[in-house]
Amino acid sequence: MIIVPASGETERGLSGSEQQFADMQAYNEEMLKAGVFVDGQGLHPTAKGARVTYEDGDWVVTDGPFAEAKELIAGFTIIDVSSREEALEWLKKWPTSCAPDPGQALELRQVYAPEDFADVLTPEMIEREEQMRAEAARNAAGG
């Protein structure tokens, strides 16, 4: 997963220029053609969000906006590649027009898969996880 940091602009709800959208679309299309693009989405500003914490035995909701933009996420891209090196090569192709603000960075993180927990998940739990992922894919496809 490529995590895109928020900026003052994204927190103000500014979505980017036509050129930035065109550059990002071209990048996503290149990954799609290479068979590595899974998903990618931008996120609304934290003013439209909430944080939910568990405190003293209860859930507490704190409405946005949240103060520190450098710790916030503006979007993500999920790719499916065979190695960390391949992921980094794709990350280095990120459109420069969409580069994070100075002092910020795109972050690369690996998403867990059920097999990563083979030592604690039962075969039934792994099967159920696969069923839930298939159902979620059907829901996302509208069916």
Give a quick precis of the structure.
The protein has helices at residues 8-11, 18-33, 84-91, 123-140; strands spanning 2-5, 37-42, 50-55, 58-63, 73-79, 107-108. It has 143 residues and is an alpha+beta fold.
Structure description:
- The protein has 143 residues and is α+β, with helices and mostly antiparallel strands.
- It has two domains: 110 residues, 2-Layer Sandwich (Alpha-Beta Plaits), CATH 3.30.70; 32 residues.
- The protein has four helices and six strands.
- The strands form two sheets. Strands 2-5-1-6 form a four-stranded antiparallel β-sheet, covered by helices on one side. A two-stranded antiparallel ribbon has the order 3-4.
- The longest helix has 18 residues.
- The two termini are 26 Å apart.
- It holds the Pfam family YCII.
- This is YciI family protein.
- Belongs to the YciI family.
- It comes from Terrabacter terrigena.
- InterPro entries: Dimeric_a/b-barrel, YCII.
E-strand count: 6
- The CATH architecture name of the largest domain reads 2-Layer Sandwich
CATH superfamily of the largest domain: Dimeric alpha+beta barrel
The strand line-up of the biggest sheet is 2-5-1-6
The tally of domains stands at 2
3D shape: globular
**Major sheet description:** 4 strands, antiparallel
Q: Could you name the ranges where pLDDT drops below 50 across 5 or more consecutive residues?
A: none
**How large, in whole angstroms, is the Cα Rg?**
18 Å
Terminus-to-terminus distance: 26 Å
Mean pLDDT: 92
CATH class of the largest domain: Alpha Beta
Strand percentage: 15-25%
CATH topology of the largest domain: Alpha-Beta Plaits
Task: Determine the fraction of residues in helical runs and give it as a percent range.
Answer: 25-40%
The structure class reads: alpha+beta
Helix-strand sequence: EHHEEEEHEH
How many H/I helices? 4
InterPro entries: Dimeric_a/b-barrel, YCII
Protein name: YciI family protein
Organism: Terrabacter terrigena
Pfam families: YCII
